[in-house]
Amino acid sequence: xxxxxxxxxxxxxxxxxxxxxxxxxxxxxxxxxxxxxxxxxxxxxxxxxxxxxxxxxxxxxxxxxxxxxxxxxxxxxxxxxxxxxxxxxxxxxxxxxxxxxxxxxxxxxxxxxxxxxxxxxxxxxxxxxxxxxxxxxxxxxxxxxxxxxxxxxxxxxxxxxxxxxxxxxxxxxxxxxxxxxxxxxxxxxxxxxxxxxxxxxxxxxxxxxxxxxxxxxxxxxxxxxxxxxxxxxxxxxxxxxxxxxxxxx
Length: 249
What we know:
The protein has helices at 14-30, 52-55, 65-77, 154-163, 183-201, 214-217; strands at 2-7, 9-10, 35-37, 80-89, 92-100, 106-111, 135-138, 141-145, 167-172, 205-209, 211-212, 224-227, 233-237, 243-248. The chain is of the alpha/beta class. The protein has a single domain (2-248), classed as Carbon-nitrogen hydrolase (Nitrilase/N-carbamoyl-D-aminoacid amidohydrolase, 4-Layer Sandwich). Strand 7 and strand 8 (141-145) form a beta hairpin. It is globular. The mean pLDDT is 95.
């Protein structure tokens, strides 16, 4: 399998973000990728603030117009496309991810189970978590998702380990408090923790984070990694750079 892990810049213009996502999906396919992976909340950024009037419009129905557009591109390009989206279901909001097939269908949807994507005081009737972790079978092998903080929950990790997928897709959104894109700080303080969690799962993991200005979400710093199940980093993309990490797996 050849995978393209996309790091794109998220702005406050959703239409422009979608256009960027579609263009970078094309670039991934042009690089020969069978699978193109985008980050968590790739369309909007993780900019929810606990006010349903602000946050619910950020969500997309799944399936819906956005996933239809993504599915059409996946079908035209003949690729699998994985992406994180804020999902709206009625008056409920989820932090979700979907895997689209070369036939244009949704083969897997994951709703983040770990709750720290929203504030502690957020209305639990609106801000919801998923209840399951699942895998799907494809000609490329079997896939499962975890999103951001899911990876640091031992019970969720144990569930994925029991499923034994061939590949773990890990869209995330991470920033430093000061909005910096400090690669040395990432390598010194955090990368080892992510790699160790992958080692606990024991499954080759594809992880990608978007870029954003500090005014959007605190300034997610980008970066992408492919980490083997034994913890070896197979490939990486530098923080602070828009780009595509292509890995032949």
